[in-house]
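Dear U.,

For the methods section draft, I wanted the exact inputs and outputs in one place so we can describe them consistently. I've listed the two proteins in the order they'll appear in the manuscript figures. Please don't edit the C-alpha cell lines directly; just add comments below if something needs changing.

First protein:
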Amino acid sequence: MHWLCEAARQSVVRAAAAGQVIALAALFGGCAPVALERTSGLGAPPAPQASFDIAGRLSARHGDDALTANFRWRHASGRDELELASPLGQMVASLSGDASNVRLQTADGRVSTASDWSALTAQGLGWPLPVDGLAFWIQGTPRPGSAFGTETGEEGRVALLRQDGWTIVYHAYTQAAAADWRPTRMTLSYPDVELRIAVDNWR
C-alpha cells in the first residue's frame, strides 16, 4: 500500500502552499486502514534504549491541515532534538529540550518555549504532542509511570499500545539484534490527530 493515498497528497500540497506547519500530527481520514503486517520469529518487547538516533518519514494530519516530512530524532541523557524537513530538504520545524525546558522553532523563525512538551506543542502547534511518551512508543514499549494497555501479535511483540489517550498500532518491526526487534512502521491516533511514522534507520 502506498504510504500516502492520493487525497492525502493533495491535502499536503494545499497545506504546504498555505505555509501551514503541523508537526507530528495526523493523517488522512478516508484512506483505507493499513493491515497489520506479521513478521516471523518470536521475541519479547524490546527494552527501551537510553539513547537513540533515528531517521525516517512521517505523514500527519490535524483537522484540515496535513504534512509529509522527513525527520531526524536524537534522544540522549534525557534531552531530545527533533528536526522536520520537507521532502526537498527545507526546514519545517525544530524541537529541542529536556524535562524542564523545551523549545520549538518553525520555518518562519517563530520560537516558542515552555516547561514541558505538551505545553510547548499546545502553544506552538495548537495541540499537545507528548515527545516524552513518544520516545518510548517509537521503541515499541510503554512509557514508565503511566497506566497502559497492550495487545500482542502472534510473534509475542506488541501490536497495539494504548497510553495517555494515544493509540499506537505497530505495522512492522525490524531485527536490530539476535533477540532485539525495533518498530519500523506505526500509526499513532489521538482525538482529531493521526500520525504515521516510518523509521528508515535505527542507531
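Second protein (the one for the lower panel):
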Amino acid sequence: MEYTLRLGDNALILGQRLGEWCGHGPVLEQDIALSNVALDHLGQARMLMQYAAELKGEGYTEDKMAFFRDITEYHNCLLVELKNGDWGKTIARQFLFDTFNYFFYTGLLQSKDERLQAIAQKAIKEITYHAQWSAEWLIRLGDGTEESHKRVQKAIDALWEWTGELFEMDEVDEKMCEAGIGVDLAGVKQQWHEKTAEILEIATLKKPEDGWMQKGGKQGEHTEYLGYMLAEMQHLPRMHPEASW
C-alpha cells in the first residue's frame, strides 16, 4: 500500500502546486498548458489513491487519503512540494521531475501488479508529453535571453540537491523490486542522468556536480512548504467532512 501511496502523493502534491499557477502564467497558452499538466497529475493521483485506499481497507477512500492525513503520513519526494518560484524555477523543477517520471513509469509498465501496470499504461502518454513539454521549455529559456539563461541556470543549481531522493532505494522499494512489482531506481538513475545531461547541453546550461542530497520525504519528513500547502488544500474537507458534491 505504501508504495502505491508514494506514487499517488507525488502526483497529488505536484498537481496541487502547479494549480497555483492557474491565472498567473506568463502567457495565456502556457497558463492553460500548465493547468492541464496539473489536472493530469491529479487524475493520476486519483487512480493511485483509489488503489491505495482499497489496499488499506478500513473504510478508506481516495478523498480520505488525500485530505485526512497529517503531514508525516505523506510520502512524496521533497522536490514536488517546493514552492514554485518564478517561471524558470517551475520549468526547471518540472524538467527534473518529468524526466524521472517518464523513465519510472516506463519501468512500471512491466510491473507484475496488474493494477499498477494498468495505471502506468493509462498515464504514460500524459507523462511522455510532460517530459517533452518541460524539456522544450528548458531549452527555450536556457538558450534564450541572457536573463532567462541566468534564471534557469540558477534554478537548476538550487534544485539539484533535491533530486537525489528520487533514486534512493529503501526497504519498501527493495521489497517491491524483489516481488517484480516496483521499479529498479538504479536503472532509472542512469537513464535520468544521461537524458538530463543531453537536454542541459542543448539548452547551453551547466549540469551541477552531484554532492550532498536532501532526503526524507518518502519516510514522512517534509519541508515547511508542505505544511502550508496542506493547510490550504485540506481546509474545506476538514471543515465539512460529510459534504458531498
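Candidate sentences for the figure legend, describing the second protein: The mean pLDDT is 94. The chain has one domain: 2-239.

Thanks,
Y.
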